[in-house]
């Protein structure tokens, strides 16, 4: 079975009342402690952020935590669907998200209006909607 995950612009993946650490330890199960800490350090999340309830984190922190969880879990996601995830991110958060997505080993389907964000992800192909239907073609930096 193909393991897929959808993340939208609000990145409300987890229970907003629980800390990232509580939720992710439950979700990740038996991941070794060192690996657990490294996955989230790579996402730029510190101990304070890990102890903060998910609902009180910024959009960028929620998104980075979700991407780290997807990358570090015992069963990696194979297809990641992203819907306007770069909305409302500051420059530092956007760069961290671009880096995390660049390390993602699965396939990405991304909906975004920010051409710079899309170019940073270095896609190989794109779907384009035209009145005659969808076209699948090599990525050309979004130039039409």
From TrEMBL:
Keyword Oxidoreductase among UniProt keywords: no
Gene3D superfamilies in UniProt: P-loop containing nucleotide triphosphate hydrolases (3.40.50.300)
Keywords: ATP-binding, Nucleotide-binding, Repeat
Matching InterPro entries: ABCF (IPR050611), P-loop_NTPase (IPR027417)
Recorded superkingdom: Bacteria
UniProt protein name: ABC transporter ATP-binding protein
GO molecular function: ATP binding
Keyword ATP-binding attached: yes
């Amino acid at each position: 079975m193909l393991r897929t995950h959808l993340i939208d612009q609000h990145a409300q993946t987890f229970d907003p009342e629980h800390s990232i650490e509580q939720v992710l330890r439950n979700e990740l199960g038996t991941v070794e402690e060192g690996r657990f800490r490294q996955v989230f350090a790579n996402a730029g999340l510190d101990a304070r952020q890990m102890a903060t309830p998910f609902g009180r984190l910024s959009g960028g922190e929620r998104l980075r935590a979700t991407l780290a969880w997807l990358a570090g879990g015992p069963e990696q996601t194979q297809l990641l669907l992203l819907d306007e995830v770069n909305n409302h991110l500051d420059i530092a958060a956007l760069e961290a998200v671009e880096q995390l997505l660049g390390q993602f080993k699965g396939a990405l389907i991304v909906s975004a209006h920010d051409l710079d964000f899309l170019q940073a992800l270095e896609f190989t192909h794109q779907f384009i909607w035209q009145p005659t239907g969808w076209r699948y073609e090599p990525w050309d930096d979004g130039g039409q």
